[in-house]
Amino acid sequence: MQQEVECESGGGPVGGVGRLLCLVLICIASQPAAAALLAGRDGPRDRPSKAAFEDPFLPPGYLDFDAANYHVFSLSIRGTRVVVAIHRSLDGVTQIGGRPTPTREEFAGHMFKVFEVYSQIFSSFPLDRVVIKVQALADPQRFLGASRMGFVLSAADVDLAGGTGPPHWYTIPMYREAPAHELFHIWNGGVIQLDPTGRTDSPGPFFEESWFVEGLTGYYDPRSRQAAGYPEDYARGMQVARDNYFRRVGTEFDLPFAGLAARASTGCCPPPASDFQSMFVWKGALVGYLLDWMLLETGKTLDDLMRYMYEQLGLQNRRFRTRDVIQALRQVSGRDFQDFFDRYVVGNERLPVEGLEFLEHHPSSTRASIATDGSRYRAGQGLTVSLAAGNPGGARGGGAHLGAQPADGRTTLYFTGRGFVPTMTPLARAFPLASGAVLGPVPVFSFALPASIPAGAYTFLLTLTDPGNPGAIVASASVPITFQP
Ligand SMILES: [Zn+2]
């Protein structure tokens, strides 16, 4: 089960909202009694029935509604009927607690768009029906989390934040955010589930792996909103995560995920457990961003990881631990992420996201590749790097950065034209990436290898960013080379 409420956080004016909103998420790992029903399922041809898939943790009738009291919108998306039911007592309600409400059509249309975005990422959803119910403001039934079968938006949710939050999810712009988050949970948390069996590291329901369930959901919900027609939502959501994370660096919240899990689960003492739970989402969303960035260097994206976890674990009724995610990353990308996990997921090193603006999520369809004119070099030899990029999306600029990462994977040096420096540095040349264009391969860098580079195995990393915004990765690629003594 997940419980989720909204809160206000400090921040400058954003759009017409006047202040930043943040999500405080209180999520409780759902229990998987019904997960066994997923075993052996492999896609739309063999779906369990709704009745076979009732979540035993939802009260009977929790997702039920009747057409006499609800407006019902539904759309079949990739074989799943997405049903949005909005209570008729909201007819004529134009604001709740001083905030404007969306129209029914806006709300339902947004849910359909977001479901479509997610179903493209995962390729499928195992149930034939999902329900999103907006109940009457006077209904005392609470939000009980997103299950595989759907979720309910209730008026009581804001009580969880001590009454400090916006009045309801069914207001502008909150209707775009929290429901998009919960909709991702029907896959991540609903089908892909962490393994709490035999744990002694936390009393539960939060465990180290909650970074995957909560954090990656916190990363995908702003991404989905960008894809669903609200481009500013990605930057806003990620900047909130970044700001909240750095505000807590050096405080009692500055813990590895396992440490956060213990405090998020017990609520032993002030500050409240919910504050540690929030940190899961903010920190985990930033870890998701970093993983996505690293996967791009292998020609993959976080979408490939999510699909792998869904198909190879979730749909197979296999629950995951942290080691399974590392294994999945290796399967997907061919790269070993153990060091990354040791530092940022199991360990608590500072996440290298300070200063990033996250202006736009990279379209994962833009691909780049690089090649060199050899694989083994000696100091003083000339080395030429060639770039190829395909941009099926809209026209854009691409600022190019070239990094060299030694085999230990811990540091990256960036080429400046005169040598290598430790900070990401744009090369002078910027590439116009026209819509639908395929660029290259063209030689883009030729230089004599400086004698200052130690011998060893390196990975050359080419990153295309939006010019002036290193936080917005358009595409990246890598190639191995060896410097000989
Ligand atoms: Zn959540």
Count of individual domains: 3
Oligomerization state: single chain
Largest sheet: 7 strands, mixed
Shape: globular
Assign the CATH architecture of the largest domain. Sandwich
Give the radius of gyration. 23 Å
Q: Could you state the order of secondary-structure elements as H and E?
A: EEEEEEHEEHHHHHHHHEEEEEEEEEE
Query: How far apart lie the N and C ends?
Result: 58 Å
Instruction: List low-pLDDT spans.
Output: 1-46, 49-53, 158-164
The percent range for helix content is: 25-40%
Q: Are any ligands bound, and if so which?
A: zinc ion
Kindly state the mean pLDDT as a whole number? 79
Characterize this entry briefly.
With 485 residues, the chain is of the alpha+beta class. It is built from nine helices and 18 strands.
Walk me through the structure.
The chain has 485 residues and is of the alpha+beta class. The protein has 3 domains: 17-45 and 367-484, Immunoglobulin-like; 61-161, Zincin-like, CATH 3.30.2010; 210-344, no CATH class. 27% of the residues lie in helices and 25% in strands. The strands form 5 sheets. Strands 10, 12, 13, 14, 15, 17 and 18 form a 7-stranded mixed beta sheet that branches. A 4-stranded mixed beta sheet has the order 3-4-7-8, covered by helices on one side. The chain has a 3-stranded antiparallel beta sheet with strand order 9-11-16, with no helix packed on it. Strand 3 (70-77) and strand 4 form a beta hairpin. Helix 5 (257-266) packs antiparallel against helix 6 (273-296) and helix 7 crosses helix 8 (322-333). It starts with a strand and ends with a strand. Residues 1-46, 49-53 and 158-164 have low confidence and may be disordered. It binds zinc ion (ZN). Zinc ion binds next to strand 1, strand 2, helix 2 and helix 3. Zinc ion (ZN) binds next to strand 1, strand 2, helix 2 and helix 3.
